Amino acid sequence: MSLTVHSAFFKNNTMFKQEAIEVIRKAITAEGILASAQQRDNYARVWARDSMMTGYAGILIDDKEILDGLEQSILTLVRHQAENGQIPSNVVNGKASYGTHVGRTDATTWWIVTTCEYLKRPEKEALKNQLRQPIYQALSCLKTWEYNQRGLVYSPLGGNWADEYVTSGYTLYDNILRYWALKNAAEIYRDQDLQAKAVNTKQLIQENFYKNDSDVVKYHETAYARTPGKPYLWASLNANGYDVRFDLAGNALAIFLDFELDFKAFSTFLESVYEEFGHWMLPVFYPVIFPGDDDWRLLENNYSYSFKNEPHHFHNGGSWPIFLGWLCLGLKRKGFPEIPGKILAQYEFLMKEKGESFREYYSTDELLPLGTEELCFSASGYLLMTT
Length: 387
What we know:
about 375 residues, 15 helices, globular, alpha+beta
């Protein structure tokens, strides 16, 4: 069966959408939205990034039950806000964690981003006033994570959602989220200073993560001059130079937030990745790291429960529906629906073929559905694909 037939077969299929909503609803508790209703490892917790992305999907589809769960997530997390303004990585049974090996930069950014999106609702005026100080405290915390006071936040190894991967430093993903947090808070509270910071942050990212002819001073002039251009934004910058691998999550959010790309070149790049792998479940980081590669040593000891980052798995080239969802949403928003249609068709076909819906990720060599079952991340990714 060709991909074209797959797309036609599933074009009017609403079964998965309702199932995605039910997966999320099952994970809603008095404390908020859990990562999964499955009692496995540490997924039965209110994670900042998981609950906020899931809540964002709830905002897009305007589902009252999910929105109620989002509000409880917002309040649970802010009750455990640290003295420095940091939002916890997760909360379970009234106990907060801010990270095990290192803290999580994106817990604070995702909380600000989605909280502010939720507060745009006119009936939430009282809550908007209540959360003003915590939001500003969280923004202040992000400011301290610049370290050099030059405008970009610095994340340690393992400091975001890809907590067992190799990216660190001035990461694209974390700085995109910091920009979005500034932008949303500026809009909600009509703060011109925050708006100016948002504009400056966006320019810093655009100038320093994408090859251009601008004469604006770069963060790391030597590294920038030596780094080849790519049809996407580079993954991260460190004192020792750029990591030029493809970070699907960071680029997906950049597209959604109107950063500048050559979309013809970007689409051609995605097509080439499809040709290499033979399917549209694109890897979340590319290229894949193999034993013997320089970065393998950064992978092999970086885990909490068990080693998951074998080649084509988990963060190391695995395919995550949540970030494919953001990519689809961003590309459609920019007027490029063709690749999102192919991704959606591929994902629906796999769920139908494998008989398993909303697993955490797929291996990109054998397309095996792996990781936690009934994951809100993946259900939310599907809702983003279909919105």
